[in-house]
Amino acid sequence: MRDRLEAARSPRPLTCLLAVALSLGFAVAQDIEPRRWSHLPTHTDFLGLGYVYTAGDLRLDPASRIQDASVDMQTVLLSYNHYFDLFGQTARIDALLPWQQGRWQGLLDGTPASTSRDGLADPRLRLSVTFVGAPALQGQEFREYLSQHESRTLVGAAVAVRLPWGEYHEDRLINLGQNRYSIEPQLGVVHHSGPWSYEFTGSVFFYTDNKEFYVGRELEQDPLYFVQSHVVRSFDSGLWVSAGIAYGWAGESAINGAQLGDYRKNLQYGVSFGMPIDRSQAIRLAYIRGDTFTDAGMDSHSLLLSWSLRF
Description:
The chain is mostly beta strands. A hairpin with a 5-residue loop joins strand 11 and strand 12. The chain has two helices and 17 strands. The chain is elongated, with a radius of gyration of 21 Å. It has a twelve-stranded antiparallel barrel with strand order 1-2-3-5-6-7-8-11-12-15-16-17. The protein has a four-stranded antiparallel sheet with strand order 9-10-13-14, with no helix packed on it.
């Protein structure tokens, strides 16, 4: 059966852009992460497996001919983290491989319509270094440093890159991949005070052009600015809980040089809970809520469950 949502062509190019924004929203939402600047011993590795369920209500331009639109997305995440010594400071490299299955549905000209996608989404690589407050240590030296610095401030920098390897078809408006690179410099500050941690991270997303956006068009996008903050409470048993909030803005787009005026304003907030299973394994539960403050965008709820193995 032909995907009727793909046939919802508007005389305004904004409709094309909205389809891109739907997929991009999921990628950005997963960037809300507490404890991303954690100080751990060098030569520590983590292998993780996660599942995210996202349900969202879509706000679309009336000219798109689509009403009451929504999306259900399931994401499976395979991750790897490695801590190492970089010029005497603690550094970390992260790799994230997502697989997604999504279904978009709504009313097209008053008639029910839907489309679905499944496959690989764009992978993400991140390199970070904590250059203040986190010397590269192991074993007893690391434990002694923590016991002597119950109150301390860490400062770190990172760069993350999303690779255009996800499923993408030029003749489709809705895709799991973006067919472009995203480069994200980050700066983070964390203050530890006993069992409490206060985190702040600022990021800027830079995008390369998608020269194969929907049958020969070219998509450009201005930088998107993103800030997030978390409060984390840790317990002696290894349990931890956090509450966080994030805000993203700007990121206006153009198709074939024509500006769309799609300035973004997105608020996201949530809670996380981590619990050790044993000395090497742990699980994490999280809930993330997303709200848009523009006429076109997505309001969403996401639930995350993940498992990690330390080795």
